[in-house]
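Why run this: before we spend reagent on co-expression, it is cheaper to look at a predicted model of the complex and decide which construct boundaries make sense. The entries below are exactly what would go into the expression plan.
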Amino acid sequence: MRSLGKRIELLRAVAHPVRVRILQELCKGVKCVADFEDFLEISQPNVSQHLSVLRKEGVIDFYVDGRLKCYFLVDPIIPDLLDILQREYAEQLPAPSCCPVTKKGTYPGRRHR
Amino acid sequence: MRSLGKRIELLRAVAHPVRVRILQELCKGVKCVADFEDFLEISQPNVSQHLSVLRKEGVIDFYVDGRLKCYFLVDPIIPDLLDILQREYAEQLPAPSCCPVTKKGTYPGRRHR
DNA sequence: TAAGAGTATTCATATGTTTGCATGTTTGTC
DNA sequence: GACAAACATGCAAACATATGAATACTCTTA
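The model came back. Tokens follow.
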């Protein structure tokens, strides 16, 4: 499997609004470049550049049919990642227990600030 | 809940090796700044800067005890995210079904390239 | 109140990212 | 073979991020 370092690089590649949109669409099925141009309001070269970023990271790959390139998902982490991005979460985690301990000492659970 | 855009910003904040390490430690419990210095091989100001990035994104918060600041996790998405980063995955997703369709046309399932 | 521990901020610099624009490549059609 | 469609690449400008170094802040203790 990928190392943690590689996974973090993948995270950086995904963490862009346009690329998340691209991946959301690819979760539904195969798409060619012109298909992306329809719903992303950016230029064709820009679409290509974002696809290139995802390709280099091994997130997506493509078939060739004539002059079309048909992109599809390759990395199985992507559906899980997109799922998390859209999942409902509680506002906050429960506060830490009343007397947390670190190397430097023991602390009251109260919020001072 | 957070908007998708905010979630993507959060993703960018998390997608750094040092900050992932910080969050992994915070999953185990409360830590003060000097605790991080011990296992991250970077300077104290640099630790503070990374903590600052996570704070501004609402990922973490802190208690104050005297001159110590005791950091803890706030955003419930973090444990799930870290879990995914370390989960085992198959090498690749199954190839797309034999005749995918896009707006521009229908394609053979064969790989040309 | 002076000193020191623990942490944050500011600044300068180096490096990386994003985008638009122009151009290049490949494939299919006439 | 000329031309057009579909897509990629190269380059430069604008902008963002990462890091080290210096400094400032805040709280505690003597």
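Chain B touches chain A through 58 residues (CB under 8 Å). Residues 16, 42-43, 45-46, 49-50, 53, 64, 66-68, 104 of chain B lie near DNA strand D (CB under 10 Å from a C1'). Bring this page to Monday's planning discussion.
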